[in-house]
User: Fold this.
Amino acid sequence: MQEYFIEVGTSNYKENLYRRLSDLRSVEGLPFELYELKNDSSYLVRCVYSTFKGPQKEDRLILRIYNYYFARALSEVIFQEWERFFIKKVLKKEYSFDFSEINKLIDKCWYAQDETKIPLSNLKKNILIKSILEFLDTHQRFNIEGFMNFRADHYKRELRKQIARAVNNYILDQEHQDFITVLKKFHAKQTTIFPTINLIIKHRGEIQFFDEQGRNISRECLEEYNRADIELYEDFLISIILKCAPQTLVVHKLTEKHAHTMQIIQEVFEGKVSICEGCYLCEQSH
Assistant:
């Protein structure tokens, strides 16, 4: 019986490639034998089938199924190794990021983005699997680096979109951290006016302040505004709390509407903020 084979070559991903192809045989049960052909500059794995002659009419469906498993295995090697290399190259050449910035972006934004955008991630993976499968339908030799350099255009377009989103998230995160640093420095220079402040955010966004004895201190905190209830604006509220510089801040009946403001306050005050979910002051937030 004539042998049918698929050869997969690489220069950079030898160990991962062999491991994934071995799993195709030992874990997923594809009926082929593995033969390694390697030298100093390249690595080739030949996968020889013994159960059918190749793409004859009666074997086409079986071969298509086997090729799908191959395409999925090869895509995993690309996701785990080639993709990281490509991301670094794009960030360096097209965004002029240095080594430190590249690693920070990948650690902070890339994998977190991938986890929170599962539909986008699956779309990208499916595009690559489809592209590899179409190639294997007409070719018995597949080189990872060659394929990724000269083919897989649709996949690389989606990957570049994902890189652009990650860069945008990284820049926003850096701007946020710089903002928090400025607020912390300002806060460090302030003298505490009220050791404990209870903050009430009412349903329509008005704010009130109480001390640890439950005394309304809104006018003292907002003295230059000549009224006790002021509509909540993020920058305004943060500046008032920074001016008062409390050692403890208790926020009553926090809602999702004001979550971003509270995130900033918690980052600036670092452990001095707590959220109360039910007390007599909370009842005044209605």
